[in-house]
Write a structure and sequence with these properties.
Blueprint: H1 2-18, H2 23-49, H3 53-80
Helix pairs in contact: 1-2, 2-3
Length: 91
């Protein structure tokens, strides 16, 4: 079961590296990374630690990261009128 979560994590990292056109697709890949990390820690904490405090703290940070990503997406759509990463000058 733990190997499935590791496979999810690696697959999401590969998809983040491959999909570089839209910022929305990058945000979805980041959320997939977060879900796989949350599932790995949930599996570990329920099997060995029996503690939910770590889960709550991590979920708070993950929600803050999601809100920050959506605010960047909305700001980028308002400024550039699209969500292409090529419209921003990153390099």
């Amino acid at each position: 079961m733990f190997y499935l979560f590791i496979y999810m994590y690696i697959f999401s990292l590969i998809s983040l590296m491959m999909i570089r056109k839209h910022i929305f697709l990058c945000l979805i890949s980041l959320e997939f990374i977060i879900i796989s990390l949350l599932m790995m820690t949930m599996y570990y904490s329920l099997m060995y630690l029996s503690s939910y405090y770590l889960m709550v703290i991590m979920m708070v940070f993950f929600v803050c990261e999601g809100v920050l990503g959506l605010s960047v997406l909305v700001n980028m759509i308002r400024c550039y009128s699209n969500d292409y990463l090529n419209s921003m000058i990153l390099w």
